[in-house]
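Bumping with the actual sequence this time:
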Amino acid sequence: MHDKNNPDPLIPKSIDFSVDDHPCSYLPHKRMRMNYKQVEVVSKTFATAVAQRGWRRFGKNFIYPVCFGCTECKSMRINVAKYKYSKSQRKTINRNEDTRIVIQEPSITKEYLELYNKYHSYKAKRDGWHHQDIGIQEYYENYVGGAHDFGKELLYYIDDKLVCVDLIDILDDGVNSIYCYYDPDYPRFSLGTYSLLYEIKLAENLGLDWVYLGYWIDGFKAFEYKQNFQPMEILEGYPRVFEKPEWKPWVPIK
């Protein structure tokens, strides 16, 4: 969607603000500060430009961290053209041969909320995540509003049961991973891994170069799965839209 009253798609009308000095979601004993650009009408051109610079989209908000004295959050993207599937990833794809996938505009149902809360309750018990059930308004603001014509949801069904919801943006140069949640009662299907593998295949089919994968923090357990998707590039910092991002090849140290 493009704002006809604003001729420059890289400078959308926005409300800019910061939320600062609250506990970091990733690193204990750290404080975090996030910059927000809240945009009502935004073009795919802008969404692509800020994804290239490491910004994340949740609803109508485009955000990036500016934490005092800390630069641990890096941005990552997968090189689609050079991607090589591992043996275990091919097994995951084969196990999901009968998994049905639907692509549509983001929406919200009672089934989504139940699955979302079930997933987060499981993560709270297994990995110590902070969990509080999400409601309709919060889910809408984070995952439905602000999608415009480039935001999509991928719905995964096993035996006609919804088992995974993967929210993405389809941009000019890649697929941007927004958020994924799945039913923990289906561990055999490795749904988190499979959803990302499908994003890679979707980007390839659409002739796109990248899958933007969000943050990497060295030593943070919840992000360790990302190192299994190679080749990868990493970005230091969060350039503004008129600054050139400098992505560099990244290989994990094992």
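The tokens above came from a reply further down the thread. Helices lie at 44-51, 87-95, 110-127, 136-144, 191-205.
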